[in-house]
Amino acid sequence: MAPESEDVASSAVADAAPGAGVAGKPRVTPEERIAALTDGLHQILEEAVESPSHWQVLLDASATLWRYSGGNVALLTMQMAQRGTEEPTLVAGYKEWERHGRTVLRGEHALWVIAPRTSRVQQVTLPDGTRQRIPVGGQLPPGAADDGKKTVITGWRGQAVFDVSQTEGAPLLVPRSGDGPEVNAAELWRSLEAVAVSHGFDVDVTEAQYGLTSGFTDFSQRRVQVGAWLSPEERTAVLAHELGHVLLHGPDDDVGRLYGSSADHRGLAEVEAESVAYTVLRAHGIDRGPQSATYLAGWADAVIEAENDALAHGAGSKLPGSRADIAKSVLGRVTAASKGILEITNPPGFGGKISAVDANPRINPPASYVGLEQPSGSVDGPVMAGP
Prior knowledge:
Layout: H1 6-12, H2 30-50, H3 53-64, H4 70-83, E1 91-92, H5 94-99, E2 102-104, E3 111-125, E4 131-135, E5 145-163, E6 167-169, E7 173-175, H6 185-198, E8 202-206, E9 215-218, E10 223-227, H7 232-248, H8 254-259, H9 267-283, H10 289-297, H11 299-313, H12 323-345, H13 356-359, E11 369-371
Parallel strand pairs: 8-10
Antiparallel strand pairs: 1-5, 2-6, 3-4, 3-5, 7-11, 9-10
Helix pairs in contact: 2-4, 2-12, 3-9, 6-7, 7-9, 7-12, 9-10, 9-12
């Protein structure tokens, strides 16, 4: 028997976040929960710098949960590891699972993510040209022009969610690693090319490559070059890498410029671009681990170098100061860029968030999907899927 509501579920199970309370003990305040989640996130990122293999683990999780922010991907991965269970695959709140015919198993512990508190405000422009926000329905200052309503973030809160492995009920189709259709490099190339075009860049496959490198992004000419001598698979991977530069390292990106200019693609800029490529390709079922190994192995050194550069050149006001903050910044930038690409290339799966159409097994399920629970009489047990 499952709890009756999400609020009841949240209080009836042990909190998965560090420092959180359990039933029968004083419950943590919202402020304490956010502090605990933030501390846990910083600990994860410190570990990722100390042990670079942890960075690849976070990227693997990001490829599965690509609709989530980088910080929440890290928190969900940490909490599932604490449970000693599988990696998170599909995550939703209690009531959302109910809407899809599934209930949280009794005694399951909630996972916690950081969610924004929002408020609707009315924006106005004052006669002197300055802008101001007032409560919706409030009286406009004299002479002010109404610029319309907007949703703004007013703070942060902890939100209880549950992985699909913590639920039971109506059959649900989820992707299973290795069972999907073979990735068509030409088709993925066209999708990635569409991403470049959407950002105002042309893609040029050429033998006259800049510096004889496999790929190069020219911001002045709004052009991405890819070596014509590469195989279709390698061209696709190189284009994904260059898209990381397109989205993250433009001349107007102050943080990206501190991480390494688009001209020389050094340091963290190069690690960021390859991390985007790794995540995007893995979301499409392509494991670039061996090819990305050199880039990703240099992750920790690049973070420490960025930290030292910030201290040496007084860039601390622009660049996050500590290595954990730098790691958090990079993870957030990589996951945001990956999401921007994947929303266009549309890989199989859910991206970690359930939706009404994709979750309905009656609506043309792709061949790469399998039932979480097997039909009655099946000898197979429940199947959890990877990316």
